[in-house]
Amino acid sequence: MDVFLMVVLIVLISTTAGLVKNHQSKAVKIEKIKSQRVKDELELEKIKHENYLLETDKMRIELEQMKNTDNINLEKAKSQLIER
Question: Its domain of life (predicted)?
Fold first, then answer.
């Protein structure tokens, strides 16, 4: 009877160890995936920030061009009024 219990204990312990090892392995894989996801999100945020800066600069340049065009049109209108 003692031999039977020892065999059962050995089987249970080895099975439990296998299950624990499998669980830990999956937990490590999940953590690696989460880590990669965080890295990807950080890279995405960096790209979004760069895009924001580029768009802001583009809008600033367009605004300056609009101001220059308005100033030219204003000067033309002034000169036409003076000529009349």
Answer: Bacteria
Nearest one of 19, 21, 1 to 11, comparing CA atoms: 19
Q: How far is it, in rounded angstroms, from Cα 28 to Cα 80?
A: 77
Q: DSSP assignment of the chain, as one string?
A: -HHHHHHHHHHHHHHHHHHHHHHHHHHHHHHHHHHHHHHHHHHHHHHHHHHHHHHHHHHHHHHHHHHHHHHHHHHHHHHHHHH-
- The model's pLDDT over 25-76, given as tens digits with 9 standing for 90+, comes to 999 999 999 999 999 999 999 999 999 999 999 999 999 999 999 999 999 8
- Residue located via tokens 């895009």: 51
Q: Tokens 């209108």 — which residue? A: 77
Structure-token pair, residue 6? 């020892």
Alpha-carbon Rg of the chain, whole angstroms? 36
